[in-house]
Amino acid sequence: MVPVVTESSLLLLTPITIRKTNFDTRVKPWRTRAYLPNEELLVREVTKASEEWGVFQVVNHGIPEELMRQLQVVGKQFFDLPEAEKEAVAKEEDFEGYKRNYLEGIKAWDEHLFHRLSPPSIINYKYWPKNPPQYREVNEEYTRHMKKLTEKILGWLSEGLGLHRVALTQSLGGEMAEYVIRVNYYPPSPKSELALGAAVHTDIGAITLLVPSEVPGLQVFKDEQWLDVKYINSAVVVIIGDQLMRMSNGRYKNVVHRATFDKENLRISWPVFVAPRGDLLVGPFPELTGEENPPKFESVVYKDYLHQTIKSWTLDKLPLY
Ligand code: OGA
Ligand code: NI
C-alpha cells in the first residue's frame, strides 16, 4: 500500500488494489495504525516511504480543503470551455500552455494545461486562463500553500538524510526553485484503443505534489507490479522525482508511474512539479558520498538534464507496460 503520512502524527497505511492482468486482489485494509509521538518519527516515516516507495500520500497537510476544491473547480471550468477559447492559451514553442494531442505510437490521449507558478519572475501570465475569472487568484493562493507544504516535506527529507533542514530547499535554489502546474485532462475512454493517459515515466524534477479528482487512475510500479494509488479525500500524493534520487545518491527512489483512463468517468489531476533552478548543477550531496560510498550519479546542470531526458522520450523509446 502506498504509505499515508498525516501531519497530526497519525500514520495510516491504506488499502490499495493490486491489478494483475485480469483480476483485482484487495489487500487487507487498515493493516497498521500507529501513533507517532513526535516529529522525529514523522521524519522517519516520510524518509522510509521515500526510500521504499518513492511515493506517499499526505493528509492533514494544512492546505484548506475549500481551496483544493476551488482549484479543481476552476481547472474543470477551463477544460469545459469551447475548444476555440482554450486555444487562447495554446502552447507555442515552449512547454507552457494548453495542448491536446493523440499520441499515435503509444495510443495515448494527451490533453493538458501547463504553466509556471513560481518564482514570480518566470511566470508567463499569458498561459494562465482568463476564464474562469477566478483562475488566477485561486492558483496564486494555491501556490503559496504548495510552497509551504513542499518546503516542509523537503525539510523532513533533508533531515532523513542527516542534513540540515533547509539543505534540499536551498539546493533547489531556495526561493528560485521552479514550481510548475500541469492540469491533466483524461476524458472517459470507453474504447480500448486508448492504452494510457500518462505513459510510463518518472518525474524529471525534484518532487511532485499531485492532487487528483476522485476517479482512480494513477498507478505506481513496485515489486514487479502495478499498484493503484487509492483515492483519499483531500490527500496530496507526493512523488519523488529524478533529482531527489540523484541528490540523495540513490537513497530516495524516483517512482515509476503512469495514469490509466477510466471507461466511464472523466478524470483530472493537478500535479505541481518542483524543480531546481535551471542553471544549478545537481548531483549527490558531498556529505553523502565518500571513499566507501562513491557518487552513483554525475552532477549535471538541471536544464541540460531536462532537455536530454525529454529528447530521449521519443515515442518509440517509451516502454509500454
Ligand atoms: C504527471 C503524472 C499522473 C496522473 O503528469 O507527471 O504522472 O495521475 N500524472 O495524472
Ligand atoms: Ni508523473
From TrEMBL:
Q: Where is the Fe2OG dioxygenase domain?
A: 176-276
**Keywords noted in UniProt:** Iron, Metal-binding, Oxidoreductase
* InterPro entries on file: DIOX_N, IPNS-like_FE2OG_OXY, IPNS-like_sf, Oxoglu/Fe-dep_dioxygenase_dom, Plant_2OG-oxidoreductases
Q: Which residues form a coiled coil?
A: none
Q: What PROSITE patterns does the record point to?
A: FE2OG_OXY (PS51471)
Name the source's superkingdom: Eukaryota
Q: Does the keyword Protein biosynthesis apply?
A: no
Q: Which family does it belong to?
A: Belongs to the iron/ascorbate-dependent oxidoreductase family.
Protein name per Swiss-Prot or TrEMBL: Probable flavonol synthase 5
Lineage start: Eukaryota, Viridiplantae, Streptophyta, Embryophyta, Tracheophyta
